[in-house]
Design a protein that fits this description.
Number of strands: 5
Strand content: 25-35%
Structural class: alpha+beta
Radius of gyration: 19 Å
Number of domains: 1
Number of helices: 4
Length: about 150
Amino acid sequence: MLLAAVLATIAGFGLWSHFRQADTSHTVIGISDSTKFTRAQLDDAGAVLLKDKRSYKGCTIDRISYDEQWSDDRLGDEWRSVEDNPGSGSSFHSAIAQYGMDKVLIFRSDFTCNDASDKGFSTGTTAGWEDLLAWAPADAKADRGWVWIDGGF
């Protein structure tokens, strides 16, 4: 009887942890100074990403960060790569073409997953995940003025 109760408790915890939202209680948010966006806009972008990352069931969101110099360099590299290779394309290049370089940014995030099969992440720590967003408050898909474009490495 005791063994059955222990097994039921373990199974219940496993199901609970699989369906619960990601832990964001200790997430560190780091945002650099910006010449492109106001602090309020950047805070809103961080809040939009944090809200989205709560869907990373079985994970802990460790850090969300924005470094304008790094973001601009990465966007510039992506733009040049597609321009130098006609016929190629990327969501980054498309976002810059649609919204303009001055309206697009990349946040990076680090998270640790124990069980995140619903998002396809492997168990362990993922560092440097990139989320591409565009400032487009008139867009119907915008949340707090931001449109999420793409995410990955």
